[in-house]
Design a protein that fits this description.
mainly alpha, 14 helices, 86% helix, globular
């Protein structure tokens, strides 16, 4: 057992050391495309559900739009904890503290289970009041509550998978998380029509089948990443300190993504007064926008270990190079999204619904709203740099004031 641990430590040092030695372009080409592809596939969960549910029920499509902000909160919480774990582990690997990094990963696992339990309890109490404010049709409200409850209870899979994925990414392993996301998405795509429409002798579950397929796909990804990403939690007395640091590092990303959710919730409540078609269009718009934004946000999380590693070593020139190349990659990806929203809005909406009212409302929204959010594509990589610099600078200042070496803090 000890020999296996030493071999894993050696491999980790080799993998993470490339952050400080390889060219920045090569690092991003090695790390970014797999992570961005994995997150593109992750975004397919909601899009695939919307496609099949749209064929099944118009009220079901409205229900999915109502619950979409709740799913964004789940993702924001899960990724926030994962980012905190990733950032701290990368910094510890840079300082050759592999044992401390394992303790961070184990603490992150306990933290994410506690966060899932608390969120699920709150969601169970608030789902019905929220759905009632966000849709007019009683059927759409009931379907939203049903879909939301299944997704919230089953969100343990995405919570744990996020931590496991960040453990692999901190080690420089981007291939396994990508494979896990692909497997999860394929599971969801395969199960959606079977469970929604009741094919091959299975019961017709409707929107509940869509939620069940989503949860199954997330658990498949969790098991794949967890097989090698699991780390044993440290002693109970060590966890509060580590958990506090994970939360402080991940909280900015959770807050940043949750703010967008608050905005969508407010729009849902306002648009409910204009009819369910407006709510449906809003949900479709943000799902398609997320298809382009989520990979850029994943690029942000992808460069975090590189920034943390180099900032901890004082390689500020490499930090600037990381940001420069990341912005160039963001711009290239942004142009694809701009083309789809500006040139093909009716074709995109028709994938999910061919109702005349939905198309009439949706086409101008897709074009006009994009013109206001277009700069966001470019600025997506900025927050990680500020977060890494601020947290690392604060850590150095604290250690200097205490007259203790930086490594003693880990």
């Amino acid at each position: 057992m000890g020999k296996k641990t030493r071999n894993q430590d050696v491999k980790t040092k080799i993998d993470s050391s490339m952050f400080g030695t390889e060219s920045i372009g090569k690092i991003l080409l090695h790390t970014a495309p797999p992570v961005m592809l994995a997150q593109l596939i992750q975004a397919l969960y909601n899009i695939v559900d919307s496609y099949f549910v749209g064929k099944f029920s118009a009220n079901g499509l409205t229900a999915l739009s109502v619950i979409f902000p709740v799913q964004l909160v789940i993702t924001a919480l899960a990724i926030g904890i994962g980012v905190g774990v990733n950032t701290l582990m990368a910094r510890q690997y840079a300082q050759n503290e592999s044992e401390a990094a394992d303790k961070t990963a184990g603490t992150g696992l306990v933290l994410t289970v506690a966060c899932w339990a608390l969120f699920t309890l709150l969601a169970m109490a608030l789902l019905r009041p929220y759905a009632s404010m966000s849709a007019q049709s009683p059927e759409a409200v009931e379907l939203a509550v049903l879909y939301g409850r299944i997704c919230c209870v089953g969100s343990l899979g995405i919570f744990m998978e996020s931590v496991f994925t960040k453990v692999h990414q901190a080690n420089g392993n981007m291939a396994l998380p990508m494979a896990a996301q692909i497997a999860g998405a394929l599971t969801n795509i395969a199960l959606d029509p079977l469970l929604i429409f009741g094919m091959f002798g299975l019961p017709e579950m409707g929107i509940a089948g869509a939620a069940t397929a989503t949860v199954c796909g997330q658990f498949v990804a969790m098991f794949i990443t967890g097989a090698r990403g699991f780390r044993r939690p440290p002693k109970r007395k060590e966890m509060p300190k580590i958990a506090g640091r994970v939360i402080s590092l991940g909280c900015p990303y959770t807050i940043m993504n949750t703010m967008c959710t608050v905005y969508i919730v407010a729009l849902n409540v306002i648009l409910a007064g204009f009819g369910d078609a407006a709510v449906t269009v809003l949900g479709l718009y943000y799902k398609m926008q997320a298809f382009f934004f989520i990979p850029l946000l994943s690029l942000s999380t992808c460069i975090i270990p590189v920034l943390s590693y180099n900032y901890a070593r004082g390689s500020y020139r490499r930090c600037r190079a990381v940001m420069r190349d990341s912005v160039i990659l963001s711009l290239a990806f942004m142009l694809v999204g701009v083309f789809c929203f500006e040139a093909l809005p009716s074709q995109v909406i028709s994938i999910f619904s061919r109702e005349a009212e939905v198309l009439a409302v949706g086409v101008p929204i897709f074009r006009n709203h994009l013109r206001r959010v277009r700069p966001g594509f470019v600025s997506a990589p900025d927050p990680p740099l500020a977060g890494c610099v601020k947290s690392q600078a604060a850590e150095k200042e604290f250690c200097a004031a205490a007259k203790t070496p930086l490594t003693s803090r880990y």
